[in-house]
Amino acid sequence: MTILLSVTGFDPDRWRGALQAADPAASIVLAPAHAADESIRYAVVWKQPPGLLSTLPNLRAIFSLGAGVDHILKDGTLPDVPILRIVADDLTNRMSEYVVWRVLDHFRKGAAYRQAQARREWVDWPQPAARDVTVGVMGLGELGRDAARKLAALGFAVTGWSRSGRPVEGLTVHGGEAGLKRFLAETDILVVLLPLTPETAGLIDETLLSGLKRRTPLGGPVLINAGRGGLQDEAAILGALEAGTLMEASLDVFQREPLPDDSPLWRHPAVFVTPHAAALSDPDALAPTVMAQIAAIERGEMPSNRVDRAAGY
């Protein structure tokens, strides 16, 4: 059994070593040297070159080395085989850590205190209780559900929105276009963990931001986007901050990555920037999940976490 590894932006040797350690009997080869190899049955990828996967005549499945799969689906030449995304505790926990960190920082006025420290000012501000602050989570897949549970455990009022509106135990869920206005109107801190699809591209725009609750216990609404950069209109975010429609934002993803040096997001005092680092894919933690999935397929079992190509996730 041969597995093709094609990664951009990751260390291919580290991933090959982790996959090999998870299954010493597997043959792991690096793209593009082995493209069109008839022995290749699986492809493990992150931002693979367009057209690469269509050259593999005996390919049985494609694995994404991350929670998102938009980097795969944008290739119009994909073969008709299952696409599988990674769902692993390590990846889920890392994302929830990021979300909880950013929610708490905005909630406890981290930016204001850092600015006061720089001015050497001994000052404090009124502090609401967590129960009085509503965190709205957009996107209720594995990552969104886990983040919502952990925020609720800290005492926040948590609601959720998804396209389907499928119920989630212990969470008030709004669904579809009909539920979006209600969801936004009750949200103090908006956490976006949606996949990037044709329906969600550019969703975080002036209209959406203007729908957030105006009077919040924090002094204004907050945006946290750790989903995909293509979800957001960055000019609209900056405009909302300047207009006071939005109080603060934490952004981990951007329309262009790396974020260009001349982007005003770098120096805006109300914006916290991280370099697409909310939930890094750790080869040692995730490789066993990939190899277990491959072993299951080899045994004739149906793979889990299969992507719906029509839905885009």
Terminal CA distance reads 27 Å
What is the CATH homologous superfamily assignment of the largest domain? NAD(P)-binding Rossmann-like Domain
What fold name stands as the CATH topology of the largest domain? Rossmann fold
Strand content: 15-25%
Would you mind describing this structure in some detail?
By secondary structure, this protein is an alpha/beta fold. It folds into two domains: 2-86 and 281-298, NAD(P)-binding Rossmann-like Domain (Rossmann fold, 3-Layer(aba) Sandwich); 89-273, NAD(P)-binding Rossmann-like Domain (Rossmann fold), CATH 3.40.50. The protein contains nine helices and twelve strands. It has helices spanning 12-22, 70-73, 89-107, 110-118, 142-153, 176-185, 206-210, 234-243, 283-298; strands at 2-7, 27-30, 40-46, 61-64, 83-84, 134-138, 157-162, 172-175, 189-192, 222-225, 248-251, 271-273. A seven-stranded parallel beta sheet has the order 8-7-6-9-10-11-12. A five-stranded parallel beta sheet has the order 2-1-3-4-5, covered by helices on one side. Strand 9, helix 7 and strand 10 (222-225) form a beta-alpha-beta unit. Helix 1 (12-22) crosses helix 9 (283-298) and helix 3 packs across helix 5 (142-153). The model has no long low-confidence stretch (mean pLDDT 96).
Write a concise keyword list for the protein shown above.
single chain; about 325 residues; Rossmann fold; 7-stranded parallel β-sheet; 5-stranded parallel β-sheet; elongated
